[in-house]
Each structure stands twice: as structure tokens, then as C-alpha cells.
Amino acid sequence: MINFIAPENNYNNDLMELVRAFSQRIDKDFDLSLNYEIDGIRMSVSVAVDGTKGKEYSYDFTVEAGDELERKRLEKRYLKEAIYNSVVDYTGIGLPYGCLTGIRPTKLFRELGDKARDMFENEFSVSQKKVELVETIVNVQEPYRNDGDGHDVFVFIPFCPTRCAYCSFVSVAIDRQKKLIAPYVECLLKEIEFLKEVVKEKGLKIRTVYVGGGTPTSIPVEHLDQILGALVDFKPFEFTVEAGRPDTINSDVLTVLKRHGVTRISINPQTFNDATLERIGRKHTTELVEKVYEEAKEHFDVNMDLIAMLPGETLDDFKHSVDRAVELGAENVTVHTLYLKKGSQLKVGGYQSVDNKTAEEMVDYAYTTLTEAGYEPYYMYRQKYTSGNLENVGYAKKGKLCVYNVDIMEEDTSILAAGAAAISKKWDMSINLITRNANFKEPLEYVKHFDTVMERQRAFWLGDDKNPSKSVKKP
Fold first, then answer.
1. Which of 217, 228, 282, 442 would staple 260 via disulfide (CB 3.0–4.6 Å)?
2. In 204-314, which ranges are E strands?
3. Where residue 154 sits, what CATH number does that domain have?
4. Are residues 78 and 103 in the same domain?
5. Taking Cα atoms as reference points, which of 143, 141, 209, 58 lies closest to residue 396?
């Protein structure tokens, strides 16, 4: 445990995230204290470790008058650099992503332009292996980037057959909430119709439609038919439905998906080991995954999710899962590293994933095996509490990547979003400004307060002065 003491400021959450990442890898307790001051164009930082005064760091702090955003950005960056270097000096232990804590390293790399590689390696202390991964993804994405004209549509269906042990998403076990499905779908359809009016009125061009969850295919097929039928009018070139639980997929579901022009689906094994599936609360077998995949692959591009560091799994178990996904030939394979957030059964039960060496070996094996099989890493993101302080990476066969995943992670596309917990986003390319409007998070609250949902959507998309959204200018 690291006892971190710092002056109260706006960056403590980011600083604590960096300290937490170290605490996963260090087996001794110590105190870490931070002080700093800014004098004109210099920032001085003092870090003490275990009661001993550490190094003094001095940074150039040249900021144009009135540029408050740049001032805060530099202040946070330099504090993280000082903390990182001090802990590494004291412990001899580094982190694969150095002092970076953000969810989107590829976005930062692109924004830094010609300076990116040098800054990642020498200022942020990112390992060479991870710098190369980030740079590769940025290059793979380039032909698919939005030119500023396209928009995406996201629809959220928060129902699942059961709740997986690692899940902390907004999702509802369907057998306990069957009465909520019909009113939820009714509200969702009304919201979709409004978004169609927005698209028509403003003459928007829709790039992709993404139906996520939860498990959208867990709802009755007639409701799924209604929703997908309402989305066809957007005429996207990419139409994705998360069908992640194979126990929700049958011939009727596949027929509905095909009839409405869906181009991509997910069939997510998470692992190809039946004992693990039972352990994490998945009510299906690996045999069913393979059966459903064979039925679906003739009509759709398929993504398969795998998770490294699931409870009880060895490196060999994970290797088997990666190898099997490659053998089956799914167009996309997304490799997640287990992360445990509040609300998940594993977290509540006290499960800890602290074997960083195995986590790194799993992630490395996935990268090597998938790239040698012709897959390219095309998007990535990082999360708090991830095993080994690592990352989640989507791999795709050439020309088969999911454009929506690129758009959502690189934050360069406006998104019209519908459903509980959905967040609509407007991106102003000229000033790199993202404006957001969030719906009620819980499905029941979404239904109960649907009038308010629609008032907020109208204000957000049609320019009412009472716009309830939050604007965030991206650095």
C-alpha cells in the first residue's frame, strides 16, 4: 500500500490512478508526499518517498496569458512525471505505460504529431513495446478516420440473460425484469424516431449504427425486430449488433438481423474453457459458441471477445482461447484485460488479479499470435483497475475493422445516442469541442422520466437555450 499525500487540487484523481497502478506491483508499504509551486515560467515539484526527501524537479511552464486549459494540462502532466520518476527511483519498478493514465493513448499520440514518439518514450516513460503498439494502431486507423462530416448512431439495450461475475455495466438480468422490456422498447422507439427527425432536418450523414448492451439479442425477437426495423432508415455502411451471449442466438434472431441489413455482430466466448465459463456465470458452453458462429459467419462479420486473467485461468488456458478464435477465423478478435470495478461480483467477493507477469504474457501472446495470423490491432483503450495496468485491444483482419469502435475511442465523430445510459455527443471539428448529453443511467429511471429524456434531447440537438449538456474542450 502506498500512502499518498498531496495538496488538494483538481488532478488528485489522475494522480491517485497513477499511484494505484504502482501499488499493484509493489509488495511493501511506504509514504509518498508531493508539494509544488509555480513561479513565473518555472514549475518546481518536490516528492518525498518514505519520509526521505526525494528529488526536486523543475519544468518549463510557459503558457500564454488566459490559456487556463493549457495551464492545467501542463500542471497535471508535470506532477505525474515527478511522481512516476520518484517511485521508479525508489522501487526500481516501472509501468508499461509509464506515467500515462488516460483512457485513450492513441488519441494523445495523434494529437502530439511529430513529437509523439519522443514524448511517449522520454517524457511519459512508456515502454518501447507499448509505444510501437500505439503507433501501429494510429497508422491502421488512418484510412477510416472521420473527415468531420459523418455521424454515428448508438442504441443501448441493457438486458442480459444473466449477469457475469466480472460485469459492472448498466445491465439487467432479463428474468427479473421482464415487465420492463415492453415499456423500455416503447420509449426507445420514440427516441429513435426523434433522432431520425434530427438527421433529416439537419441533413446529417450517418456512418455507422451500433446496437450495444447488455445483450440486445436477449430481448424477445419481436422487440428486436421493431428496433432494428426503426434503425434501417439511417442507411449506415456499417450496422453492428452486439449478440455477445451465444445462448441468445438462434435461427429466428439471425433471420431478423439479416433481414434488417446488419453487417457485424459479436459472438463473445470470453474464454474457450468450459470450467471458466461456469465460474464466471456464463450459461453456455464453448461448443455452443462454435455452433452459433458456424451459423452466423456466412451472413455477418463476427467479433469475438476474449478476456485475459479470468479467475482460475492459466497462461495455457488463455493461449488455447486465442488459438481457437484464430482457428475459427472471426473477422475481429478483441482482447480485454480483466478489470474489476465496484459493483461486479468478483470485486464484491474480494477477488484480486495481481499476477502482473502472467497478465503481460497473456497480452503479449495475443498480440504475437493474432498479428502473425494476419490480424491488425486497430483500436485500444485503457481502464482503471486493469490487471497489470495494461490495455484492451481490438484486432481485425485487413479491411474488416469496426469503424464505430475507432470513432468512439478517438472522439472525432458526433454520436446520436438512444436508451438508458446513452450519451449523445456533438463534436465541433473547428475548435475540437465535444458537447455531451447523458440519458438517465438505469433502465427504470429512463422509462419513468422519459419526458425529461426527450426534453433534453430536443434541447441538445435542436438548439434550445436550456441545453442541459456539458461541454468539454479536448486538449
1. 228
2. 205-213, 238-242, 264-266, 301-308
3. 3.80.30.20
4. no
5. 141
Q: What is the CATH number of the domain that holds 17?
A: 3.30.160
Q: Are 397 and 388 in contact (CB under 8 A)?
A: no
Strand ranges for 161-313 from DSSP E: 172-173, 205-213, 238-242, 264-266, 301-308
DSSP string, 355-397: -HHHHHHHHHHHHHHHHHTTEEEEEEE--TTBGGG--EEEEEE
Joined together, the cell numbers standing for residue 143 give 484510412
- Residue 440 is assigned to a structural domain of this protein: no
In whole angstroms, give the CA distance from residue 97 to residue 93. 12
Taking a C-beta distance cutoff of 8 angstroms, is the pair 390, 96 a contact? yes
Q: By residue range, what is the domain housing residue 71?
A: 1-92
Same domain, yes or no, for 183 and 215?
Answer: yes
Where do we find the cell 480485454? 336
In tens digits, what is the pLDDT along the chain, a chain of 475 residues? 899 999 887 788 889 999 989 988 888 899 999 999 999 899 999 999 988 877 899 999 998 888 888 899 999 999 999 999 999 999 999 999 999 999 999 999 999 999 999 999 999 999 999 999 999 999 999 999 998 889 999 999 999 887 666 666 666 667 778 899 999 999 999 999 999 999 999 999 999 999 998 899 999 999 999 999 999 999 999 999 999 899 999 999 999 999 999 999 999 999 999 999 999 888 899 999 999 999 999 999 999 999 999 999 999 999 999 999 999 999 999 999 998 766 556 655 666 666 889 999 999 999 999 999 999 999 999 988 788 889 999 999 999 999 999 999 999 999 999 999 999 999 988 877 899 999 999 999 999 999 999 999 999 999 853 444 444 333 3
79 found inside a domain: yes
Residues 86 and 100 in one domain: no
Count the domains in the chain: 3
**Which residues face 58 on adjacent strands?**
44
Q: Is residue 189 located within the same domain as residue 235?
A: yes
In terms of Cα–Cα distance, which of 228, 217, 234, 232 is closest to 181? 217
Which cell numbers hold the place of 114?
A: 511529430
Residue with the three cell numbers 513565473: 40
